[in-house]
Amino acid sequence: xxxxxxxxxxxxxxxxxxxxxxxxxxxxxxxxxxxxxxxxxxxxxxxxxxxxxxxxxxxxxxxxxxxxxxxxxxxxxxxxxxxxxxxxxxxxxxxxxxxxxxxxxxxxxxxxxxxxxxxxxxxxxxxxxxxxxxxxxxxxxxxxxxxxxxxxxxxxxxxxxxxxxxxxxxxxxxxxxxxxxxxxxxxxxxxxxxxxxxxxxxxxxxxxxxxxxxxxxxxxxxxxxxxxxxxxxxxxxxx
Length: 239
Ligand SMILES: Nc1ncnc2c1ncn2[C@@H]1O[C@H](COP(=O)(O)OP(=O)(O)OP(=O)(O)O)[C@@H](O)[C@H]1O
Description:
The protein is of the alpha/beta class and 239 residues long. It has a domain of 165 residues: Rossmann fold (3-Layer(aba) Sandwich). 36% of the residues lie in helices and 26% in strands. The protein has eight helices and ten strands. Helix 3 packs across helix 4 and helix 7 crosses helix 8. Adenosine-5'-triphosphate (ATP) binds next to helix 1.
């Protein structure tokens, strides 16, 4: 099995604060890995190092076989950040078209791709409206649609379902699982524990380390609990 992301012995300091002490885990091809941990535990920092947007103080981040940072790889990665980077004065459709061009999607495929990702996030009725008039949730949905454009080999999604209602969340997960079936890989952070139940592997980040990396069912067994939420709470309590 190919490895999409390999993080070894990552250390990251901000001033005197050591946020990541020794982070190790892999995302294999065709896997969904959920990175969970309390607020401020360093999930976004791990993601940014994996993407080459932050440089670690020690350790190694390899993505799709290349050591990060590596600008050439960015076209193969669909990234959704916590804060949206959208063009307010453009419509949703114009944003999608712009990012499709940036990603080098061929003219022949642009229209079908845009229609597909628009439908995944249920923005059909609002896609011609200006983003400045979008609600927070709609902006998140558009950002997710942009990340999905171009069928990237690897998706890195930082809390993609914040502000998304349960019905649409379910639809988004159906899409994420379809992406996995195509052999593509996903690293996702979430605060929604029912989502963590659906991933292949959970990486639990606590105290600057990934203290558990297992399937949801193994994790529950390890902590002798019936939900990932309880495993999470128990792990936090034990530290
Ligand atoms: N650029 C930065 N400069 C200084 N400190 C930073 C920087 N980026 C992150 N931090 C600090 O690192 C810690 C981890 O932040 P990070 O955003 O990675 O956490 P998180 O687990 O993603 O949190 P949340 O779940 O709330 O999004 C926090 O204490 C944060 O203040």
